[in-house]
Design brief:
With 430 residues, the chain is of the alpha/beta class. The chain has two domains: 18-262, Rossmann fold, CATH 3.40.50; 271-428, no CATH class. It is built from 16 helices and 13 strands. It has a nine-stranded mixed β-sheet with strand order 1-2-11-10-3-6-8-7-9, with helices on both faces. A hairpin with a 5-residue loop joins strand 1 (18-19) and strand 2 (25-29). Helix 8 crosses helix 10 (299-311), helix 9 (288-295) crosses helix 10 and helix 12 (336-349) packs across helix 15. The two termini are 23 Å apart. Bound molecules: S-adenosylmethionine.
Length: 430
């Protein structure tokens, strides 16, 4: 997303609020109507937008069995039909300018805004491709008993203009749908509990939904924009699928959640290095270059070690930058042997590790174990086969290390798992 500054009359974008160390994930704080005009045109392959639905106008809903008022935030209040439509036209026009000629856009919404979105798209000359009906299997009940229970949202998919030759990864969608053509009706759960461990957003979309959208309409290394990025679900899905991402969000607490979520994707093979990263942070070392030197890895690998430490609940990224969590703090205060055993116990309890453990129970050799875990990841995500092989190796390396640390207790933590023999290999970090 660069332009020649000497030729470009637009005011420069502010520095990102947060960017990943490889710069492929960027979050900008501000109003998208102000920031999008500062971005160079035709820069993005895909836009996903989950704009305000203008629902927060004194209604009621049911949350956790209780009647609560629908108030998601000031940003969700309607200013009247005319003004709301004008807002929709303005941000959609900017998205159109930012899309590449063959780029496409997805916009989600309920009846409160989706007709305005569809009409605006027609006014602006987008090419309508599909309207997806997203069915929510467990919607909150309707408390007034005067309407059907609201159980769907619509997501409109459109090409940049009438000439757009949009990307559609048809074969992948068919494979994910058990070998049959995928319909435009998608039944997908709301975000799972583990998607909210880094903080919540009142209208958070599920990773499953965003992964499907991104996998369907982009290729690896494509660039994705979300002008209303909230807790960063689009960006996290993009990162998991090897796409680059730029998100705009006004509200600082949501940006913080998004940054923390990104850092929760595990890719570092060596638990010793994860531990050393935590200890270095306890000693006040924050610079990736210095950390890389201390750990004997590249800056990029430092990033993966930090991500893994976040996933394991030892580090966090907040307004004050990198810091130890309470668990990380406690661990850093222990003796080296105690620290290693504590980390091993944390790894053993992690849900992803436990899932991998349960799957490899009957595998005879290390190759079988790797292939089994890779197949599990491949079937349940849209990651490429190579990436699944590497992530499988990471999980197995963690398990092998944790078992060795927990000698004597491993029976309790890793019931029935044959001894792992793989060498941990940091070359697999990629
Ligand atoms: C419907 S939520 C998006 C939730 C997101 N899809 C997620 O999974 O977390 C809309 C978000 O847009 C933000 N927002 C509203 N108006 C905005 C604007 N003009 N510019 C940037 N962000 C805005 C709100 O703060 C809110 O977090």
């Amino acid at each position: 997303m660069t332009a020649n500054p000497s030729l470009d009359p637009r005011p420069a974008l502010p520095d990102p609020y947060f960017q990943s160390e490889d710069s492929r994930f960027r979050l900008y704080q501000g109003d998208c109507l102000e920031l999008m005009p500062r971005m160079p045109e035709a820069a993005f392959d895909l836009v996903f937008a989950d704009p305000p639905y203008f629902l927060s106008n004194g209604g009621i809903t049911c949350h956790a069995g209780k009647m609560v008022s629908v108030h998601k935030g000031k940003w969700d209040e309607s200013k009247g039909a005319e003004a709301d439509h004008e807002f929709t036209v303005r941000w959609l026009r900017e998205c159109q300018r930012l899309l590449k000629p063959n780029g496409s856009i997805w916009v989600s919404g309920t009846a409160h805004i989706i007709h305005s979105v569809g009409y605006a798209m027609q006014q602006l000359g987008f090419k309508l491709l599909n309207d997806i009906t997203w069915v929510k299997p467990n919607p909150p009940p309707n408390l007034s008993c005067r309407y059907f229970t609201h159980a769907t949202e619509t997501i409109i998919w459109a090409g940049r203009d009438k000439k757009c030759r949009h990307k559609f990864n048809y074969a992948l969608m068919r494979r994910l749908n058990g070998g049959k053509q995928m319909l435009s009706v998608w039944t997908l759960e709301a975000p799972r509990r583990e998607e909210k461990v880094f903080g919540k957003h009142p209208t958070q979309k599920s990773l499953a939904l965003l992964e499907r959208i991104i996998a369907a309409s982009t290729d690896e290394n494509d660039l994705v924009l979300d002008p209303f990025s909230g807790s960063g679900t689009t960006g996290i899905a993009a990162a998991r699928l090897g796409r680059s991402f730029a998100g705009v969000e006004m509200d600082e607490p949501f940006l913080r959640v998004a940054a923390a979520r990104l850092l929760g994707v595990p890719q570092a093979d060596s638990p010793e290095r994860i531990l050393a990263t935590v200890m270095a942070h306890a000693d006040g070392v924050r610079s990736p270059a210095l950390l890389g030197e201390m750990l004997g890895v590249t800056e990029r690998q430092v990033h993966y070690c930090r991500q893994a430490a976040v996933m394991l609940g030892l580090l966090s990224f907040g307004a004050a930058g990198w810091q130890l969590t309470d668990t990380g703090q406690t661990m850093a205060g222990g003796k080296p042997l105690e620290c290693a055993r504590a980390l091993a116990a944390i790894i053993a309890c992690h849900p992803l590790v436990q899932l991998a453990v349960s799957k490899v129970r009957h595998c005879k050799d290390s190759e079988g174990r790797r292939n089994t875990v890779a197949r599990l990841l491949f079937a349940s995500t849209a990651l490429s086969e190579n990436t699944c092989q590497r992530r499988a190796q990471t999980l197995l390396a963690w398990i092998a290390w944790a078992k060795a640390q927990l000698a004597g207790e491993e029976e309790y933590l890793f019931r029935d798992v044959p001894p792992a023999t793989e060498e941990s290999d940091d070359a697999a970090v990629a």
